[in-house]
Structure formats: structure tokens, C-alpha cells
Specification:
- The structure is a homodimer.
- By secondary structure, chain A is an alpha/beta fold.
- Chain A folds into two domains: about 220 residues, Glutaconate Coenzyme A-transferase (3-Layer(aba) Sandwich); about 260 residues, Glutaconate Coenzyme A-transferase (3-Layer(aba) Sandwich), CATH 3.40.1080.
- Chain A is about 30% helix and about 20% strand.
- The first copy, chain A, has 17 helices and 26 strands.
- In chain A, the strands form eight sheets. A seven-stranded parallel sheet of chain A has the order 4-3-2-1-5-8-9, with helices on both faces. Chain A has a five-stranded mixed sheet with strand order 10-16-21-25-26.
- In chain A, helix 7 crosses helix 8, helix 8 runs parallel beside helix 9 and helix 15 runs antiparallel to helix 16.
- The longest helix of chain A is centred in the middle third of the chain and has 19 residues.
- Chain A is globular, with a radius of gyration of 23 Å.
- Chain A starts with 18 loop residues before the first helix and ends in a 6-residue tail after the last helix.
- At the A-B interface, strand 4, helix 13, strand 20, helix 14 and helix 16 of A face strand 4, helix 12, strand 20, helix 13 and helix 15 of B.
- Chains A, B: Belongs to the acetyl-CoA hydrolase/transferase family.
Chain lengths: ~500, ~500
Amino acid sequence: MNGLDRIRLHSLHDKVMPAAQAVQLIKDGAVVGMSGFGGAGEAKSVPLALADYAKDHPLKITLATGASLGNQIDGRLNEAHALARRYPYQADPGLRQSINAGEVMYIDQHLSEMADNIRHHNLPQINVAVIAATAITEDGLIIPTGSSGNSANFVEMADFVIVEIDNTINPILEGIHDIYVPKARPNRGPIPIIQASDRIGSIGISVDLEKIAAIVLNDLPDTSFAMDEPDTETLAIAQHLIQFFEAEVAAGRLPENLGPLQSGVGSIANAVFSGFEHSNFHDLEMYSEVLQDCTFQLIDSGKMKFASGSSMTLSQSCAAHVMNNFDQYKDKIMLRPQELSNNPEIIRRLGIIAINTALEFDIYGNVNSTHVAGTKMMNGIGGSGDFTRHAHIAIFVTKSVAKAGAISSVVPMVSHTDHTDHDVDILVTEQGLADLRGLAPRERALKVIEHCAHPSYREDLMSYFERACEKGGQTPHLLHEALSWHAQFQETGRMKAV
Amino acid sequence: MNGLDRIRLHSLHDKVMPAAQAVQLIKDGAVVGMSGFGGAGEAKSVPLALADYAKDHPLKITLATGASLGNQIDGRLNEAHALARRYPYQADPGLRQSINAGEVMYIDQHLSEMADNIRHHNLPQINVAVIAATAITEDGLIIPTGSSGNSANFVEMADFVIVEIDNTINPILEGIHDIYVPKARPNRGPIPIIQASDRIGSIGISVDLEKIAAIVLNDLPDTSFAMDEPDTETLAIAQHLIQFFEAEVAAGRLPENLGPLQSGVGSIANAVFSGFEHSNFHDLEMYSEVLQDCTFQLIDSGKMKFASGSSMTLSQSCAAHVMNNFDQYKDKIMLRPQELSNNPEIIRRLGIIAINTALEFDIYGNVNSTHVAGTKMMNGIGGSGDFTRHAHIAIFVTKSVAKAGAISSVVPMVSHTDHTDHDVDILVTEQGLADLRGLAPRERALKVIEHCAHPSYREDLMSYFERACEKGGQTPHLLHEALSWHAQFQETGRMKAV
């Protein structure tokens, strides 16, 4: 049977069973912890069999993961009405709809915090862990696949474990994971990462072998993520940022390699990182969540010397290139549990520059990352809060308008706050960059309106700000009008009357 | 001259000068870092002389401190129009007015972050440090007074230092400070505090003696802070919390001594801590910012075994009692720089229970700590964000109504967000306690309305929530109505029509 050779501890061979049999171990009401982060490294056969099973059996689970799952697994489980509760992050269009309809209870969480919340009883205990593996070693270590996520935590916490051996994963990945699980309080020490490239853990997940209840073999590959080519706006955003970094280095305010970088996921972030390709920066490092194509391009061009993340979310061609040339990369990347990749202690110690995408921000620099018009969940806060709060410099990027100008990404007041003005240092749109460090709200507003707002909204924003200032306050607002742009959008599909 | 004996390094005696002379070292436009935190441990003679000087000299400074200053120093400097910019926190009525009028640029900051922001060039460098001292040792160590704040950081960063020897401070305080300054990145290691009582630094501030430009002697004492006696509502809040803690311990979710506690400043927090007095808890620990009377009462009654803070803000009688019986306390308290007392790394490692006061919160658990009706600054976020984000359990307390019922502290949508729903676990009013851990927004709303809202607003909140749910969303809102309670309050002084 294809895959048995990956179970190198032979005494485990008799635990191999079909996915359809393994899922019967998962009971209605169970709290299930699954591997998967950034659409990579999820178990596939078991969750998909679970969705099938739920179609004609009463089954509602609480699903905890690393972060988003590939292969539309959230969507398939949702279609089967198998999800009662979901955390800490998702990015599936179908599940999003059920969440916004109030049918699935979604607990949007900082990615770094979920494991501690379970460990210390703020969230229910994990009943079963479903973990994708590249292999199980002779010593019984579970080698993760394309992400580390919360897998090690779930294995430690769960009553029992289902391991899914992923035959599609190139076995050469063994060795790139850095698995470390913080001790429970009160005997917890510091996490000893001093440099982005420090290895502090083992290459796989330790497991009490008694807890392995089933092993399933999988042949469905990770999802590929093709990135949009940068467009005029994302290129402009990248350029503003590169210029800012160059000026900071020239002024002696940033080290020559900038310090470790974090980047959110998506096309804008990808464009920004591609911007480094044509810059003079070198010896770059990442200490981030998701390693995208651009990470490997920067390694290829000699610009980046090391990248730490929790997952690899790659296009098909990039994935093939990386696997075919893995020797070039294996000492330059590391995949860590999200408790490490997103850890406040480490982020603050290393002095990370965090670059994340905003849904919208307001003139005072508060950022909405999650809720369209203040109500409808898009994906979730993900790691943006972990990085933004503790970063040396916290940057948010977005295009100044959306939907062909019908929506301004710069608004009088955000309709939902995920990141407060205390935490947000730099805002960038294709229009320009607003450096808000050390500024009071009234000063921030002038910068944001001048540098970030689209010209077609600039005058309206300035009018709002000036009229609000007449009423006074540290953060001037007109409460009747503050959310009127969003209300108008809800009613007409446009933020202002044509 | 009274106080010379406290300057035990005699070579410094010739730097002693009157405050009026020392202030001439402070130039127009200077960035001045002053000691002081929680209204304790501020320099007094120099700032007050500076206010006098500014009355008839052109002088506008940027003032950075630990946190709030006693002796109305912010007010006096503000009256003299000596403040151009102010951070990271203040609590003076007069300065508040100037801030809200847009006359003083106020940069409200997380208390733990300011030093790093200066050290790594997100804020301007400190030109002059003005630091209150109990003594200067034979070795030239500056022994702080009633607070540690950012004093050690300012001394390290400043071009020159003015030391103010505070003759009113009992010299027995020497030894209770734990002064440790993190290294600048990229060579920063972990902060080695593993238990609340660990000492990791020295008892005083090291200084390059060349930088001491002046020493001033002061005879004005620290301000005393009398606490209101607990009233019916604050007693009820305390009782709800104690019951919650007891239930958590009984369920095995919290250790018997709860783990280290943090408490915000003020009468409600004081009442809550007094609630422990009549509880069965023992071996309590604090890892907090400000040690108030209640801390020492709990030590007196044997309930509390150790308290770490950044300042002591005491009533006159408590201060006298503590100083007269200092032997009982000296091994049980420690005053640390706010980079340690409020540090995310340590807060998360220790698993702190954080109890802070909200100005208002909304049905989904977002908290406003700073802005009245979304616009007017009250004091500032202080350390509430440092603790809330990283706490094991983050709690906010407030009375359910203010101004004799004209204002509901529970609103449809907060008019300003300082703490997002991701970070807020427990809300408490005199009406009851809402445990929001692991709940989605719609579930949170039901708990908050049922357990926390005042009966006179409960129906209106439920009506809002139900009508919002009809429109859907992860966090249902009616954008036209979301801030209407605050708008109504601005117009009529009441949140709803009589």
C-alpha cells in the first residue's frame, strides 16, 4: 500500500485504516483539532470523509485548526452541516456565508493565543486531533507537512489522534520543522529564540503512541495558490514602502537589512515583497506566518537569507521548483508552530516590521481587518493582531478604493476596529504613505487624508475632519455622520451619492 | 543643607543647585523625560520651577513620563503653556481640557512600549531626564522614589540628567526597586522573570556621571490618594468576581491562588481587591502597575504574599503605616520599570488575571477605556492594553450606569475601541458577570445584555440586537443606530429620551 513505507515505526502499521472507518471515531459534539495553516498542510482524506459521513449521520463538531484549510475542506464540512463552532480562522466563501447568517458560531482569535486558551481552560479541551504527516519516524515522531500550525499542541492535548500520512508531500521536507511546545504555567520559562533562524525544538511532534487511534493514507495534494500579477496600484504601494525603508536606513533609524519582516497573505503583500527584488536590500530575513512564492524568489535572488514561518502556501510552479531544488532552501527556511511564529514575546524581542492588509482604515489610523461594513465577517483577524501589536513598525497596506471607486478604504471612522491607533504606525495606499509614528490623532488625520485617501474622497474626508474638529476632542468625530458612509454603501452599493 | 547626606557620592555635591537655576538647562523645544507613574515618584521642584519659568519665557517642551504625575504638575505646566506634546499617559483635568481642545498634542500609548519606541527611533530622542531620587549611592546609583516608571530608560537615553533628591521619601525605600533595562535589538535576549517575585536587576539606576548636569533638593511630598469607600455597586462587582474565581478554582480551571493579579487604578479596582479580604483565597500575588492601599491591606491580613508593581500610590495613612512598618513589607514588594511591569512577554508567561475599569463596553465585548462619547479623551489607555491583550483572563469592570442612570455603560457599539472583542474575556457590572470565553459575538451579546446591562436599558439593547440580527452578519449592527445613544447623550445629556 502506497505510504506504508512512510510509517517507519512498524508497530503502527496495524493502525492503518480507511478514512471512512477512522471518521467513525469522531463523535457528535466532539472538539476536533486539525492541522492546517494558510491553506497548507491540512489533513484531507479524514475531513472529507467526515463531511460525507455527516451527510447522513447526525454530526456537529467544534473545529479548531491552525488557521485556514486548503481543499475547500471548511466549505465541504459546512455544506454537510457538520460545523457547530469554528476557530480561530477560516477563509472559505461558503463557511463565511453560514457564519454571517449566524448558523456557525465563529470565534475569531489571535492565532498565537488559541493553544494557550485551550491549555489553560479558556476554550474546551480537544477530543481528537487529525494531523497530516509527511512520515512517522522510527522513534514515533510525527513529521508535519506544509504547515506546523497548532498540530503539536493538538497532539499533546487530544484524547486521541488520527494521523493522516500525506503521500503527496515530498519526504525531503523532513527536517524543516522546528517543533516546540511551551510548558503549561506556572512553570513556563522564556522561549529561547534570539535570532529569526534559531532552532529550539525538534523536527517532529512527540506523541504518546497509545493515543494514535488510526492512521489514514492520503493521496490528495495541497491546494496551489496562484498569485495575481502585481497591478499598477500594488506596484505603487510596494514602491512607497521601499522608499520609506530606504529613507529609514539612510537616517539610521533601521538596520541595513531592516530586521526580520512579517507579511500578511495575499496579492498586495506578495507585490510588496516582490518590490524587494528590485531594491538594494540584502540579507533580508522573515519571521512570519505564511511563506509565499515571493519568499522563495527572494531567496533565489540572494536577497533573503532566512525565512521562518508556520506554513508554505505556494503556486504549483513554485512548489515544484522548491521541491526540485530543495537543497538550496533547506537551511534557509523553518516551519514552526504558530505559538512560536506569532508569539508576542519573540515578535517584540526581534523587532519585526509587520506588513498586513487592511480592509479599511480611518483618518485616525484605526484599522478594520475583518468586518465588511462593520457586520459581515470576511475571514478573520488571523495573525495581524499578534504582529501589529508587538512589531517594531506596524504597517497596513490597501488600495485606496475598492469596487471601481464605489468604496473608499479610508473612512471617517472604521465600522469595526481590529487594530487601534495605538498599534498602527504606517498606512500605505497607491496614493502614498502616511507615517503616523509619534503623532496625535489630529495630526494623523491630516497625514492619512493627504497621503492615503483617493482624490475622489479626499475633500469629503477633510470636510468631515474639519467639521468634527469644531466640536473638539482628542479624536474629533461627528457621531451622526461617522458611519454614514458605510450605511450609504449598504443601501446603495456606493459610499457616496453619485 | 537638608538632603546633601543623601548624595553619598560626594564628588557630586558641587552639582547641587536651586531648581530655578537647573531649569535653565531645559531649552525651548526640548524632549524632556520625567520620572513619575501613577501619581507617585515624580520630580517636583524642577517641573514646578519650569512652569514658573515658562510663564515669562518662551518655552514649549515635549514631555514624556512614566505615566501620570502627582502634585498637579501636568496642570501647572499646562497652565504655563509649556507643553507642546505629551505622552504616554496623563490624568490631569486641566491638561485634559487642553488636549481635547487640540492645544496639546497627546500621544496616548501602551505604557510598556514607549521606551522601545524611543530606543528604536519611533519617537524622538530624550534630551534631558528629570528624575526623582531617594538617594545617590556611593557608587553613583540613582535610587528611585515611589515609582520606577521609565526613569532608568530616560537616564540611559538622555543627553543629560537632572536628579532631584526627594527629602520627603523615607530612605528605607532603598532596595525595593528592581532596575533592569532591556538591551537594544538585535541583541536582545529574553527577560528572565519566571515568577512574579524574581529579582533580575539592580536596586538603582546606573548613570554615566558626566551626564548629571544638576542636582536639586526637594521638600514637597508625593500626593496622597484617598480612596472612596466601596459603595453598593462596587461591592456587588467585587462579589461577582470573587464568586467567579471560586467557581473557576473549584472547576480546576484556575490554580488555588489564581496566579498573579493585575488591577487598574481607582475606586472600583480598590473595592474588588478589598473583596479578597473577605474571601478564602490566600498566597495571592500581584504583578501589576500601581500598588494601592488594598495591596498592603492584603499583605497585612496574610492574604497576599508578594506584589510587583511600578509605583506605590497610597493614602496618607497607608503610606505612614507602610513606612513605619517597612520591615514587614520590604521582602514582599518590588517596584520595576514599566518595561518590565507591563511587559507582554512576562504577562503572557506568568498567566496574569487582569482587572481593569471600562468607560463603556458594547454588547459584543469591545471596550472603550479612553474616549467619552468617542471624542473626548479622559486619561489614556495606560497599561490596560498591555495587560488585557496578554492576560490569561482579561476582565473589565464598570458600573452599569453613570450620571444617575443618564448613561448606560453597556451600549450597542462602543464609540471608541481600545480593546477588541478578541481580547476581552469577562465583563462585570453590579448587575452580574458575563463570561465571554469561547463565545461568538451573537452569543456574547446575549450574555452581556442579560448579565451586565442595567434593567432600564436591557430591553433597548435587546431590541437593537434582535433587529440587527435580522440584517445578519458575524457582528450584527444597525449602522444608522449604532452610535445614536452617544449622539443623543451629546445633545441632551441622556442616552435616551425621557
